[in-house]
Structure formats: structure tokens, C-alpha cells
Design goal:
Layout (H helix, E strand, L loop, with lengths): L2 H7 L24 E5 L4 H17 L2 E8 L11 H25 L7 E7 L2 H12 L3 E5 L6 H4 L2 H8 L4 E4 L1
Parallel strand pairs: 1-2, 1-4, 2-3, 4-5
Organism: Streptomyces kaniharaensis
InterPro entries: Rossmann-like_a/b/a_fold, Universal_stress_UspA, UspA
Pfam families: Usp
């Protein structure tokens, strides 16, 4: 019997052609490996970090939590060291709060995480970290500043970049 007769005997179904993976597709990976969450201390960024932690836990991914210390304009450049010290204190407080949160839930679930901080503009810093970490997803909070509806928020800029799946948490 020929292959055509075999196909007819099975109800006319033909075996589908093998799928070809699109360029850039990684064979052998199953699910995300790194999820990047942006944290700046705002309520929406804490919700985004919590959401990202849940995703990382369910997917078995590493959670990278990033705080990008803003570089302030020339008017505050005179304050220099004081501004830098303040942004470092914020980073230290965020790390401390993350450790405390991990301790509170350690009996319920665990997620492998790391805290990253750098100086720069929030969009540029998160984009650079997402690229360096080869993040499979980026999770950020919705902007709480009214002006961002006009000029665009970090979240909108990340989405428009189109280089990673981005989840914006309200």
C-alpha cells in the first residue's frame, strides 16, 4: 500500500509538515528563565514586583528586581553628593524591604531573586538590564504621575521598544 492509501485509510488525514522554528527561537527552553521587575518604591511598583515574584515562582524563573537611581538635572547637580547619598539610601531601603518580605513568606513559597541597582534614567536602565540579563519578561508598575500621560511613562516606552514582553501592573 502507498502512503496515499494509508492516509485515505486513516480518514484522509495527511501527516503535517514539520514546523520550522522562526529565527531567534531557542529550542530546548521551556518557559521564562529571568523576569525583570522595576521597583522605585511606589505602590504600583511594589504591586508589579509582587506580581513578577508570583510569575517567577510559578515558572521556576529567577526574579531580578531593579531600582534605577535617577540622575537628576543640572539644578540639583550642585547638591551632588547629598543627592547620590539619598538615592543610595532609597536603594538600601528597598533591598531591606525585599529581604523582609522574603522572610515573611519563606514558609509559603520561595523564589530565587536578586536585587540590582544602577544610576541612570529609569527607561534606559531597565532596558539595558533587560538586555544584559536576557530577560524573558519585564514587569513594571503603571506611572502614578499625571504628566506621564502626556509625555509617556517608563512603561509605555518599554512597550514601544518592543524588545521584551512587558506587563504593566496598575
Amino acid at each position: 500500500m502507498s502512503n496515499e492509501s494509508d492516509a485515505e485509510a486513516l480518514g484522509g488525514a495527511e501527516e503535517p509538515a514539520p514546523a520550522v522554528a522562526p529565527a531567534g527561537f531557542e529550542l530546548g527552553t521551556d518557559g521564562p528563565k529571568v523576569i525583570l521587575a522595576g521597583l522605585d518604591g511606589s505602590d504600583s511598583s511594589w504591586r508589579a514586583t509582587s506580581y513578577a515574584a508570583g510569575l517567577a515562582r510559578r515558572q521556576g524563573a529567577v526574579l531580578a528586581v531593579a531600582y534605577v537611581q535617577p540622575v537628576l538635572g543640572a539644578a540639583t547637580a550642585l547638591a551632588g553628593a547629598a543627592v547620590e547619598e539619598t538615592t543610595q539610601e532609597i536603594a538600601d531601603e528597598l533591598l531591606s524591604a525585599l529581604r523582609e518580605a522574603e522572610h515573611r513568606v519563606k514558609e509559603v513559597w520561595r523564589v530565587e531573586w536578586r536585587f540590582l541597582t544602577m544610576r541612570g534614567d529609569p527607561y534606559g536602565g531597565l532596558a539595558r538590564l533587560a538586555d544584559e540579563l536576557r530577560a524573558d519578561a519585564v514587569v513594571v508598575g503603571a506611572s502614578e504621575q499625571a504628566g506621564h500621560r502626556v509625555i509617556g511613562s517608563v512603561a509605555v516606552r518599554l512597550v514601544k521598544a518592543g524588545r521584551w514582553p512587558v506587563t504593566v501592573v496598575p
